[in-house]
Amino acid sequence: MIDSSTVPSSLALDTRGLNELRRLARQDSPEALNAAARQFEALFINMMLKSMRDATSSSDLMDTEQSRMYTSMLDQQLSQSMASKGVGLADILIRQLESTVGANSVAAVDSPGGSRSPLSPAHNRADTSGSAMKREFQSRLAAHAEEASRVIGIPAGFLIAHAALETGWGKREIVGADGTNSHNLFGIKATGSWKGRAIEALTTEYVNGEPNRVMERFRAYDSYADAFKDYVNLLRSNPRYKQLIEGAQDAKGFAEGIQRSGYATDPRYADKLMRVIRQIVS
User: Fold this and answer.
1) How confident is the model at residue 5 (pLDDT cuts 50, 70, 90)?
2) CA separation for the pair 88, 210 (Å, rounded)
């Protein structure tokens, strides 16, 4: 599963850094959530280093205003470097916030009695904007999904939902360092057998239920049509997806089959996929 959000290039200890985070936050994007979590992790590390230094005695010779300034700069650089690799705090925050946001979204749409919960005008505007984005994403992929569905027999809506989960409804598509779009809708990695183009990106992998940020190589395609063709070929040619295809006629069977086959390491992947499917197929 891909997560191509990037870590801020510097600590937001100045006005410019804070303003950039505010700009991202106004977009209500996954990138803003990721950036804020990474920023918090960096600041936490910086405070921890400062506390460690304060608790360590130093000679009067080295305890000057200039040495303290350079030590502070060094701590900031160390904090940034450690946060870029991750110590786990940011991933915990992201997982918790995503869970909270997801629960709030479901509560807003699926309130008791089938009616919408009352929302403020600002929430209504955000909901309208989000709905338009999701409709555009579905429309863009509909023809490709229908073609893939005819070949593999899995409902087109399920395939679109899988692409929506992997890309955040198109907001987190995998792009290269130069901004080139990989068109990789399904987070398929470029393993040793892959002979085509590849793009490196940060992703979250779960080991023993714990998230770890790692750099991986992902397949790159010339178009979304090629992405769907390769996705279908992967499911048809790999024996571990045989039962998935056979039991994918209902949403629960497809979502659980995807997770059971080892498509993703996230232990909550099936639940997340089910929530997206319900938004498309209802």
Assistant:
1) very low
2) 9
Task: Enumerate domains of the chain plus CATH numbers.
Answer: 1-118 (no CATH), 120-280 (1.10.530.10)
Query: In a 10 Å sphere around its CB, with 0-12 CB exposed, 13-18 middle and 19+ buried, how is residue 21 labelled?
Result: middle
Alpha carbons 71 and 84: distance in angstroms, whole number: 20
Per the residue annotation, which of 20, 31, 205, 226 is the catalytic one? 205
Token pair of 66, please? 């200039």
CA distance 9 to 39: 10
- Say if CB 123 and CB 108 are below 8 A apart: yes
Distances from the Cα of 65 to the Cα of 53, 68, 75, 254, angstroms: 15, 5, 15, 63
Residues with Cβ within 8 Å of 10's Cβ and at least 6 positions away in sequence, in order, are: 17, 80
Q: State the catalytic residue, choosing from 3, 41, 230, 266.
A: 230
Is 3 an active-site residue? no
pTM metric for this prediction: 0.58
For residue 205, indicate whether it is catalytic: yes
What confidence tens digit (pLDDT) does each residue in 118-172 have?
A: 444 555 555 566 789 999 999 999 999 999 999 999 999 999 999 999 999 999 9
Q: What is the pLDDT of residues 76-123, one digit of tens each?
A: 666 566 655 556 666 666 666 555 444 343 333 333 333 333 444 555
Who contacts 118 (Cβ-Cβ below 8 Å, separation ≥6)?
A: none
